[in-house]
Amino acid sequence: MAMRVMVGVKRVIDYAVRVRVKSDRTGVVTDNVKHSMNPFDEIAVEEAVRLKEKKAASEIVAVSCGPTQAQEVLRTALAMGADKAIHVEVPAKEYENLSPIHVANIIAKLAKEEKIDLVILGKQAIDDDCNQTGQMVAALLNWPQATFASEVAPENGGLKVTREIDGGLEVVKVKLPAVVTTDLRLNQPRYATLPNIMKAKKKPIDKKTPADLGVDVAPRQEIVSVEEPPVRKAGSKVESVEDLVKKLKEAGRI
Description:
It is built from seven helices and eleven strands. It is of the alpha/beta class and 254 residues long. It has one domain: Rossmann fold, CATH 3.40.50.620. The strands form two sheets. The chain has a nine-stranded mixed β-sheet, with helices on both faces. Strands 2-3 form a two-stranded antiparallel sheet. Helix 2 (71-80) packs across helix 6 (194-202) and helix 4 (100-113) crosses helix 5. It is globular, with a radius of gyration of 21 Å.
């Protein structure tokens, strides 16, 4: 039987934009800054579409949490091949304090409501680099998980997943329902064609709120200050090993 697949998509500052810290150090500048779908989530959508093309998946449900602008990435997911989109609306002010545990609870509740067989998420978002949501979803649902996937293949009613680990590659087999998180080398996401983009603009997007799902999104943490990374000091050239040793001694390094 073909799977129902859910993919999470997050709207983030585009990877090519230089991020600037606000003058009051409460966060980063987002106004008039280009945003796009988190690159790891693009890979998740692409993998879901490929599973559908192989007849292993029957329907793809894209989910995004955030303010109204989150619908932009849902439209992109629909244009790439998702069948249905759900926008869990979180006002901009509340969204600033939305943590992976909040998102994981929302996705877990939706996965149950939609009778999902497979949740595919990017391994992390490039704005916070948390790498937590997928693991938390698996824990909340008590489903098996295969994180950092570089290859996914349906096998005997489950999945055979090749994972990228520090020591190389690891192959695991998981039974469905399951949670998979995507690594960079899993696939090359397709570009949405203009006709599909136009069709996606007309497709309805289901709207929900965390309260509809019984999820409390009260802040679990407080941002005290956001700082720019320290600027690296310029290096200097030395003429010989003796000069290098001398400079290291003067700097107290040896």
